[in-house]
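Appendix B, Record 12. Input sequence as logged:
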Amino acid sequence: MTERMNAILAPGRVAVVTGAAKGLGASAARAFAAKGMDLALFDNDEQALVAFAKELGVKVLTIAGDVADEADLRRLRDETLEKLGDVAILMNNAGIIKGAGPWDAPSAWRRQLDVNFGGILSAQHLFVPHMIGVPRPSAVINLGSKEGITTPPGNAAYSVAKAGVKVLTEQLSHELLKATGGRVSAHLLVPGYTWTPMNFPGVNPETDEKPTAPWTAEQVIERLFQGLYNDDFYVICPDNEVTSAMDAKRIRWAADDMIENRPALSRWHPVWKEAFAAWLKG
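Logged structural output:
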């Protein structure tokens, strides 16, 4: 699959990145630019996006808008195809972390779902038919979360949205395999704890001192590229405190809640949390 990915991550091809002005999106844009790719960058912070684009050294189209607004995403698609003429990578990275609980008002959930799930769904609807119809290899990268897999308590709206992204991307991968024989692929990027403005509001990851635990955004994107060249669907990142082995055991325990008929979220249940801790150590 390396040959196929070399044809995607190639000079002159185009990467579309949402949420591109900072954090993981900006790091991804830099990595795509380093491959010689042209860029279509989308963010709701126009000033930051335009300033960032000036430092990249490749052809860059910038579009300011809201991923929850399908008209803005349609403008991104139309201008990308008109001015750059290609989509090799669609990276649905834009997201928010604002919380809402299980019995909070639907209005408190709506923005979370519209951005973290609806934005990806709309972008796929707009871009994927073109990617299928053009006889060149391409790939969709959707930003997932471990909170959409093990679904810890505390931010139900975010977990629900990211669980939806996981299922949506799995379905996309399967349907693309049937439709294109693997020419167009889908990949789920699942970062660990990461030093980004979303996880650390009010700090500047470029200048402030990073805590020990999180990975940098650049480390996450480096792991993403490794996964792409390996043709991995699930690109699940560790960090400086959580190893891949720990992630695997947490995911297995969460799945076994159904198989073993344990209480919901037993990892945090007062009767079961000590059993989980012992099993994790074992």
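Residues 106-133 form the longest helix (28 residues).
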